[in-house]
Specification:
Elements (H helix, E strand, L loop, with lengths): L8 H10 L2 E9 L1 H7 L11 H13 L4 E10 L10 H14 L3 E4 L5 H11 L2 E4 H12 L3 H16 L6 H8 L17 H30 L5 E6 L5 H9 L16 E6 L5 E6 L9 H6 L1 H8 L3 E7 L5 H14 L10 E6 L6 H14 L6 E2 L8 H13 L3 E8 L3 H10 L1 E7 L4 E8 L4 H7 L1 E2 L4 H9 L1
Parallel strand pairs: 1-2, 1-3, 3-4, 5-7, 5-8, 8-9, 9-10
Antiparallel strand pairs: 6-7, 11-13, 11-14, 12-13
Amino acid sequence: MSRAPRRDLSQAEPAQAQATRALVIGPYINEKAQARRDRAAPPAAIRSPQARMDEAASLAGAIDLDVIAAEIITLAQVRPATYLGKGKVEELAARIEADAIELVVMDCALSPVQQRNLEKAISAKVIDRTGLILEIFGRRARTREGTLQVELAHLAYQKSRLVRSWTHLERQRGGFGFLGGPGETQIETDRRLIQERMTRIERDLEAVKKTRGLHRKSRRTVPYPIVALVGYTNAGKSTLFNRLTAAHVQAEDLLFATLDPTARALKLPHGARVILSDTVGFISDLPTMLVKAFRATLEEVLAADVILHVRDIAHEDSDAQSADVESVLAELGLDPDDHRRIVEVWNKIDLLDRDQSLRMRNNARRRGGHREPMVVSALTGQGIDELLAALETRLSAGRQVLTLALDMADGRGLNWLYEHAEILQRAEAGDGMLHVTARVLAERVAPLLRKFAIVEGDENRKGRARKG
């Protein structure tokens, strides 16, 4: 079958989205029913309906929809056929007709049956939270890897929503942006073709996984430790990334401003270099299919020596957002309570007033030890020096410090040392030798001692090094 030509989506989709009149609906279970459902959930994971509604509206705004209104509908229970009760559906249909609404965004997970029944009842296109997040991801992906990951997740989502054929679904639901349009995601016939495409993408992503593994292996031989930034979307990860590396990664007050991972070298106070990786932001109710599809990208997090969990400490739902991030980390196989590896960074301290800022800093200090968060403002630079010092201390744990003697003329040896160790200090000795104090990984001590002599008086370090 011939493939339909791909459109230039960079300009066509935003224009189409802006012309789409949208209504955002938050169909939330009432407090009594929610309390029964969330009895086992930690308090931090429970959000207010208004906070959830604000986030849903922001998600819709992230793809430039013409949001006419955002409304909360309180439910006593979820209806199997349409999610909403019959009366609410009738009210919604009347509202849609009166305001010429073309798209309804439901801030919940709809089953294929509920989605189809709602569209039929209200005569408008309906997408749920998963569909909206996929739309955003599809718009933001730029690299081949990111595009493949988004397409895989999108195919998995649409596969369960096929009715008779893709062309039937296309006529029924219409299309805008990434979720519509024949040829854009190559879902044109039936489940068999979708599955074949998914299999090809999974094979391509497996190749990406192997390539990234080789890159990580080559970095280990340098060795440059890896530091990964994680956090809730819009927590300020990209702003912090730019502050630390002087890079120019897109950093806006926008949900999912960063999708494709970015890595840069970062120089620590004593000269050590690390690889700093910025990753896609997490969000509550992140679709499972996206977690699986983006696993190749998130493997940078799994391989990281230190993970900086960036939190928007000024946000009213900061605790709930933190719980969501920790849930995703746990799903990836990481222990969220591993505070030797995971460092909390309380960002946006500049948005708090003086009393709030003081209280926040005191709360951080009370945690103490490895549990103490770093309080910063990526925007103004407050606390960045302290963060870098803490990061250096964390990365130096378990490393050996040795003072080595080099011939002053041994430029090649000195260059090798700079590439394979962290140079803390260097001084010229009276005998024409150069004394270099270096910090090195335990597994690199033996090769280092084969190339250089330890300075007299450093025997204790020598013993520890040989033992290591």
